[in-house]
Amino acid sequence: MAVLGKINHLFKEFVYNISIKNNLPESIAREAGGKVFSFGSYRLGVHGKGSDIDTLCVAPKHVKREQFFTEMLDILKAQTEVTEISAVADAYVPVIKFVFSGIPIDLVFAQLSLPSVPDKLELLDNSLLRNLDERCVRSLNGSRVTDEMLRLVPNVAAFRIALRCIKYWAKKRAIYANVFGFFGGVAWAIAVARVCQLYPNASAASIVSKFFRIMQQWNWPQPVLLKPIEDSNLGLRIWSPSTYTQDRGHRMPIITPAYPSMCATHNVTSSTQQVKLREFERAANLTDRIMIGAASWPELFEKHDFFSRYKYYLQVIASSSTAESQLSWSGMVESRLRQLVMKLEVNNDIEIAHPFIKGYDSVVECETEEEKHDAAHGIFAKAKKTENNEDAEEKKNEANIKHTESSENGTTNGETNGKESDAVNEEETNTKIYITCLYIGLFIKPKDNTGGSRKLDISWPIQEFIKLVKSWDKYDDTCMAIVVRHIKRYFTS
Question: Which of 202, 276, 297, 493 makes the best surface tag, with the fewest CB within 10 Å?
Fold first, then answer.
């Protein structure tokens, strides 16, 4: 709260400075105001230690977005408490990310069609969206959805406890990541809120138990709604399968309650839907037993088995010669991994292409160009490899898988294949290479009754994916590389 108070003060200063630059009288500049709203997990009361605080800065009509991403950015950079600051002004929802006194902050901006923004302003009035551009509407939507959710749940205390539990479970089971095709924080919150509406007098434990069975048996793609979808006739697009073909393709639609209603789960694919339904069934069976004393809560939160669940995996290796380029390059590859999943799903022999919800970062010390080439291809026999501490436990699981051999034409006997991309430029002289590894587990449909060997060629989706990520306008083949290879789980006795 202290950090948010400081940010609010800095933002008001910024609005005042812009007002003076616009030649507004001193008295009007002081009244221009500006207000900071929190939303997301912090506003819902379900945040934890180390969680980002999603924060919205609302400005009057004479303050422009470009000024926020330059002058407000400079104000933040000048604060001694601020570290790790970066701005992504061209994102779907433009954001400034930084750490303030040890608290991670995501700062978004919205400009209202008002001459001033008073401290008493509330955002649920739909008329505030009139004449706003889409980026401002999207920025406002986070706060509006969070407030509307809290208004619509019958018992906020039970909702918060149940949601904390569900979020913890989803992270332990590795199904919490919107970018990879699973549910994100907003979707989990809306789904839990809907169960709270169905059972307004239930305890948090009862809500958790009912949640899994309801989600498992839900008649997808029937949408999860907290209230009927409304249209305020402001010309903004709302989720409507009868109107938009794209909306009809959503597999597990969970719809935001504030106007304009959007689908929070449009990234769900056939594979991630199957994975989630299987997890819902496991959890439903466990909680049924827990509620009668036949099982214990810790069993529900057992860690995922991703690295031992499948026989075959694809490993996507994004590498760069500098830490700065790797941050943006690996982030871009992560954001496109879902496209590879969907391309793999087209293959009739692949039943599930299951992406893991995080990438593993490492830095490799290389003495020769050969070592750098090998490291970019995931071979660390000679080079010295260091990893983030948070990845250490997962790396023990990753060690259970090893490489298979692929033939020159990009096929492999039985199940998987992959083709590699260009290596890091051989003229590069840096001694370090920065690597991020992403994984997709593959479940191959059983062979037919003939029992014969089958060659499964997935070189086309891999090559198309590599082409896609290399088409990024900031891709630099002198310092960045992308490799996709298939690996096989190592079975121990």
Answer: 493
